[in-house]
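Subject: design request, 514 residues
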């Protein structure tokens, strides 16, 4: 099994996905262990002094004015975890919780949080054992960290609360720790606060969404090309010289992908042979590279923000070992991550919208250039894909609602001490919903476009298009014919897109797409 080594200089998005989604093992490097010990020495020195230090010998948030004596500090750290583990609502997905925990471990290992090495080692052991704390949907405002979600994880390290075992069964966390030979942690100065004060949840969901969207944007280029082909459109709009004169990099990549799929097509270029010859294709076909390209450039910006955050040590207060200081700061504010989460939801909504317009065009006999109404076998007796488009339209409408930014919706908390928050967790949660919906929308376009191509009797599709059709049929998705129970076909098409089957089938012909 792949092993990810956590050092002092952050981690990569690939490592986060490997741990979160694929169960990669985690190891802490010797340099990280040394950095943990050095930072802890600073905390221990300050804890022995009479002067109050936030997070070490004071209360938290609006209660930071109270000095806490040595005899109560262990209780202070336990209590912040217990009281902040106040989430409500449905459970958050296992991969999100694993990403959150791994990213918190990454920050602990930076040597700027002041926890003892054994705290980090216990977190790594929990991840490696496949134990996943129960985290709830609601409880983070995306400022002062993803407080409730991280607190539920810290609670499990203490052997309290509930967690899911590697077998999927939810049990008391203490039982699961004992079953895997892991001792619960006993928190000391600053450690409770350090476990729950970071942007790890929203960042983890951003990285997982980027992994999904990379696949979906490539898939959308393929389905756009298939729709262009099925509509007998022209591939001349994909010429590199046309995109070079508007030099957005994502646009050029999308156009090149579409051109690669359409190479050798016997369907394209018939657009002037209708009774009323077309001078040009509709926007949803002709402007596909521009829309998908803008989304790709948005992904690149989001990756830049994510990479910066991956290199960060987000905590408050933060330990500066070289200076021997612990300083309060505002680095826990989730604005940078929240903005790009919202931006990605906007891009996903627009990509879904243009895909749905192409699907609708394929089904409308007045605009499909010779295809049967709704791609039905016997229109009137058969309804074809009429209601599949309804489902797609409902998903697009949902995406538009999810595109409303969460990051502008600050709400004050903690007796006005925390009077401006990012709502980044909420932005991340709605983006996950949007990504799922986008995958379904692309699947419906794929279902319609492949059927339409097969209905073009006497015309030979591009080799890559033919490969996509054949692979989809091999995946159990039926082609043209009388009406059938559509939901299983649509679900199979969704899985084919989500799992990368469409990309794999096409790239076996085209080579790697951008």
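Subject: RE: design request

Done. Sequence follows.
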């Amino acid at each position: 099994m792949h092993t990810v080594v956590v050092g002092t200089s952050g981690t990569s998005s690939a490592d986060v996905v490997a741990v979160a989604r694929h169960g990669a093992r985690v190891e802490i490097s010797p340099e990280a262990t040394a950095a943990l010990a050095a930072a802890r020495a600073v905390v221990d020195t300050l804890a022995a002094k009479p002067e109050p230090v936030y997070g070490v010998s004071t209360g938290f948030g609006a209660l930071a004015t109270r000095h806490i004596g040595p005899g109560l500090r262990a209780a202070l750290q336990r209590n912040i975890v217990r009281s902040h583990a106040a989430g409500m609502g449905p459970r958050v997905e296992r991969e999100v919780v694993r990403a959150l925990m791994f990213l918190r471990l990454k920050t602990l290992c930076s040597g700027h949080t002041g926890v003892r090495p054994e705290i980090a080692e216990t977190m790594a052991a929990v991840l490696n054992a496949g134990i996943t704390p129960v985290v709830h949907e609601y409880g983070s405002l995306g400022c002062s960290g993803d407080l409730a979600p991280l607190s539920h994880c810290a609670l499990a390290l203490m052997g309290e609360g509930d967690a899911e075992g590697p077998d999927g069964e939810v049990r008391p966390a203490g039982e699961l720790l004992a079953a895997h030979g892991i001792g619960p942690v006993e928190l000391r100065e600053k450690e409770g606060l350090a476990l729950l004060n970071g942007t790890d949840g929203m960042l983890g969901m951003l990285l997982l969404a980027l992994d999904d969207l990379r696949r979906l944007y490539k898939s959308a280029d393929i389905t756009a090309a298939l729709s262009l082909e099925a509509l007998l459109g022209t591939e001349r709009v994909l010429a590199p010289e046309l995109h070079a004169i508007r030099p957005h990099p994502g646009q050029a990549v999308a156009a090149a992908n579409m051109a690669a799929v359409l190479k050798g097509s016997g369907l394209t270029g018939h657009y002037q042979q209708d009774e009323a010859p077309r001078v040009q294709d509709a926007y949803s076909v002709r402007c596909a590279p521009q829309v998908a390209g803008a989304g790709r450039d948005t992904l690149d910006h989001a990756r830049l923000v994510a990479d910066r955050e991956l290199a960060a040590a987000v905590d408050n207060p933060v330990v500066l070992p070289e200076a021997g200081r612990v300083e309060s700061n505002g680095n826990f504010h989730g604005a940078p991550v929240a903005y790009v989460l919202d931006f990605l939801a906007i891009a996903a909504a627009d990509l879904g919208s243009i895909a749905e317009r192409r699907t609708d065009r394929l089904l409308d006999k007045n605009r499909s250039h010779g295809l049967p109404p709704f791609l039905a076998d016997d229109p009137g007796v058969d309804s074809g894909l009429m209601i599949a488009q309804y489902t797609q339209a409902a998903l697009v409408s949902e995406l538009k609602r999810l595109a409303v930014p969460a990051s502008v919706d600050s709400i004050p908390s903690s007796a006005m001490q925390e009077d401006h928050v990012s709502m980044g967790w909420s932005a991340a949660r709605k983006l996950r919903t949007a990504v799922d919906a986008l995958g379904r929308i692309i699947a419906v376009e794929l279902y319609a476009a492949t059927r339409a191509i097969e209905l073009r009797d006497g015309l030979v599709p591009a080799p890559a298009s033919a490969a996509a059709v054949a692979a989809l049929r091999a995946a159990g998705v039926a082609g043209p014919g009388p009406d059938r129970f559509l939901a299983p076909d649509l679900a199979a098409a969704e899985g084919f897109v989500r799992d990368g089957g469409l990309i794999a089938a096409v790239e076996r012909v085209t080579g790697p797409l951008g």
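The chain has two domains: 3-198, 205-311+342-510.
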